[in-house]
Specification:
The complex is a heterodimer of chains A (206) and B (249). Chain A is an all-alpha fold and 206 residues long. Chain A has two domains: 89 residues, Winged helix-like DNA-binding domain superfamily/Winged helix DNA-binding domain (Arc Repressor Mutant, subunit A); 81 residues. In chain A, 56% of the residues lie in helices and 3% in strands. Chain A is built from seven helices and two strands. In chain A, helix 1 packs across helix 4 and helix 2 crosses helix 3. Chain A starts with a helix and ends in a 32-residue tail after the last helix. With 249 residues, chain B is α/β, with parallel strands linked by helices. Chain B has one domain: Rossmann fold (3-Layer(aba) Sandwich), CATH 3.40.50.300. Chain B is built from eight helices and ten strands. In chain B, the strands form two sheets. A six-stranded mixed β-sheet of chain B has the order 6-7-8-3-9-10, sandwiched between helices. Chain B has a four-stranded antiparallel β-sheet with strand order 2-1-4-5, covered by helices on one side. The chains are: A mainly alpha (206), B alpha/beta (249). At the A-B interface, helix 6 and helix 7 of A face helix 7, strand 9, strand 10 and helix 8 of B.
C-alpha cells in the first residue's frame, strides 16, 4: 500500500499538519489501514527530501512552529500520475494462502480437504464480521462503505477460489497418477485428458 | 445499532437437533443423508447452512421442519420432540410454530397477498377478519403493505418473496426455515430479502437458511458447513482482538 501517494493525494485536497493528515487518512480509508503518527512523519520527511512537499511557515525541523504541509508542483504532478496509473495486481504483495495451497497440492501427507475447510470457515467468519460492519456503517460514510465492500468482494473471491481448489485437487487425486511432486510433470496415464470426464461431485451451484 | 446478538442469558431453544440422522434404504443401498447432526437455535438467532449438492442441507431442513423424521436422534421444536407426536399433531405444530420460505415462493396464484398470508391462520381456525388483520400487520413489517390486494402474478420476484416471508411468520410462529430464499432473485433483491430475514431474527425469530451464496450466509450469526451428511465445521463468534489485528495488517 502506498502511504506516500495517499498522503500526497490528501495534500492535493488541502494543506495539512502531520496530525491532521493521519486523521484524514484514517477517516478516508474507513480505518482499514491504521497508520501511526511516526509512519506519517517519516513519510513526509522523505517526500520533503524528494521535493514533493514543503512545509509552510518555516523549516520542517523547527518543532516550535510546525506549519502545515503543502504540495510542490512536482508533488502535484506525482499525484496526477498516481491517479492515472492502475494498481498492478503483483504489487498487492505475496499471498500466503495462495502459496500455502500450492504447496499443499504437492507436499505429501497434507490433508488438503481439512486445510481448505479451515480456511473457508475462517474467511466465512470474516465475511460475517464485514457484513455486520457494513450493515451498521453510517450510510453517509461513503469511504467506510466502499472499503468494506472491497473486503467483502475479496473475501467472496477467496471463497470461490477455495471451491475451485477443492474441486481441482479432488479430480487430481482421483486420477491414477503418482506424479504430484514439484517439477515432475510426467503422468502415468498420458492418454487421459487433463480434464477427464470423471463423475466428480461439484460444489454448491445447484 | 447492532441488536442481533443473542442475549447473555441463553433463552430456551426454538429448535434443537440432537444427533439427528436420516438414513434411506438398507444394506448395500443405504444412503446416509444426515449423520449425527447437533444444532441449537435460540430466539433471535440466524444460522446459515452451506455445503455442496447432496451434502444433506435439504434433509437437515426437512427434519427441522417436521416434514421428515429422523431414523435416529431427536428433533425438538419449542421443546416438543417431534417423534412423540402423531402425524396430525405434527401437522398442527408445523402450522403453528414453523414457517417455510422457498426459492420459488410457493404462493397460491388465485389468492391475493393478504389472503395468502392469512391462509395458514384460517386453516388453524382463526376468524377471517382477525386473520386478515394479522396478515396486514406482518405484510407491513416486511415492507409490502401496499401489495395486500395484489395477486402473485402482478408482483416482482422480490415482492413475492417478501409476501412469502410474511406468510411464514404470520401468527405465533417463531421458527423460520428458508431453503435458498434468494435463489430466484438478482443480487440486489436478494440482499433486500436478507435484510428482511435479519430484521425478523433481530425481533426474536429463529431463522435457519440453506444457501450456496457465501455473501448471503454472511448475514446470519453463524454458518454451519455440511459435507457428506455431516456437520464438519461452524463459524464461531469472532475474537475482537483478532479483528483489530487483521485491520492493522
Amino acid at each position: 500500500m502506498s502511504v506516500k501517494h495517499a498522503l500526497l493525494a490528501l495534500l492535493s485536497w488541502r494543506p495539512s499538519t502531520t496530525y491532521q493528515l493521519r486523521k484524514d487518512f484514517d477517516a478516508s480509508t474507513g480505518q482499514a489501514w491504521p497508520l501511526n503518527i511516526g509512519q506519517v512523519s517519516t513519510t513526509l520527511q522523505r517526500l520533503e527530501r524528494d521535493g514533493l512537499v514543503v512545509r509552510e511557515g518555516g523549516p520542517s525541523d523547527d518543532p516550535a512552529a510546525p506549519g502545515p504541509w503543502r504540495l510542490t508542483d512536482a508533488g502535484r504532478e506525482e499525484v496526477t500520475a498516481w491517479w492515472r496509473r492502475p494498481v498492478p495486481r503483483a504489487d498487492r504483495g505475496r499471498d500466503e494462502l495462495v502459496i500455502k495451497l500450492a504447496l499443499a497440492a504437492v507436499v505429501p501427507g497434507v490433508d488438503v480437504a481439512d486445510l481448505v475447510q479451515r480456511q473457508r470457515s475462517a474467511i466465512q467468519r470474516t465475511l460475517h464480521d464485514l457484513t455486520r460492519l457494513r450493515r451498521d456503517a453510517d450510510p453517509e460514510d461513503l469511504p467506510a462503505r466502499l472499503v468494506l465492500s472491497n473486503h467483502i468482494f475479496a473475501a467472496e473471491a477467496d471463497l470461490r477460489w477455495l471451491d475451485e481448489v477443492e474441486e481441482t485437487l479432488l479430480r487430481a487425486r482421483r486420477r491414477p497418477s503418482p506424479a504430484r511432486r514439484p517439477g515432475n510433470a510426467t503422468r502415468s496415464t498420458p492418454d487421459v485428458p487433463a480434464e477427464s470426464t470423471e463423475d466428480v461431485p461439484t460444489r454448491s451451484t445447484a | 445499532m447492532n441488536t442481533h446478538h443473542p442475549p447473555t442469558m441463553p433463552a430456551q431453544p426454538i429448535l434443537e437437533m440432537r444427533r439427528a440422522s436420516r438414513v434411506h434404504g438398507e444394506g448395500a443401498r443405504t444412503v446416509r443423508a444426515l449423520v449425527d447432526a447437533d444444532l441449537v437455535l435460540r430466539p433471535g438467532e440466524f444460522v446459515a447452512v452451506m455445503g455442496p449438492s447432496g451434502s444433506g442441507k435439504s434433509t437437515l431442513l426437512h427434519l427441522a421442519g417436521g416434514l421428515d423424521t429422523p431414523t435416529s436422534g431427536q428433533v425438538l421444536v419449542e421443546g416438543t420432540d417431534l417423534a412423540r407426536l402423531s402425524v396430525a399433531q405434527r401437522a398442527v405444530l408445523r402450522r403453528r410454530s414453523i414457517g417455510y420460505v422457498f426459492q420459488d415462493f410457493n404462493l397460491l396464484p388465485a389468492l391475493t397477498a393478504a389472503e395468502n398470508v392469512a391462509f395458514p391462520l384460517e386453516l388453524d381456525g382463526w376468524p377471517v377478519r382477525r386473520a386478515r388483520r394479522a396478515a396486514l400487520a406482518v405484510l407491513a413489517e416486511t415492507g409490502v403493505a401496499d401489495l395486500a390486494d395484489r395477486r402473485p402474478e402482478d408482483m416482482s420476484g422480490g415482492q413475492a418473496q417478501r409476501v412469502a416471508i410474511a406468510r411464514a411468520l404470520v401468527g405465533p410462529r417463531r421458527l423460520l426455515l428458508a431453503d435458498e430464499p434468494t435463489g430466484a432473485l438478482d443480487s440486489g433483491t436478494g440482499t433486500e430479502i436478507l435484510q428482511v430475514l435479519r430484521d425478523r431474527a433481530d425481533r426474536g425469530a429463529a431463522v435457519l437458511m440453506v444457501t450456496h451464496e457465501a455473501r448471503f450466509a454472511a448475514w446470519a450469526d453463524r454458518t454451519v458447513f455440511l459435507r457428506d451428511g455431516r456437520i464438519v465445521d461452524e463459524t464461531g463468534p469472532s475474537d475482537p482482538a483478532e479483528l483489530l489485528a487483521e485491520g492493522a495488517r
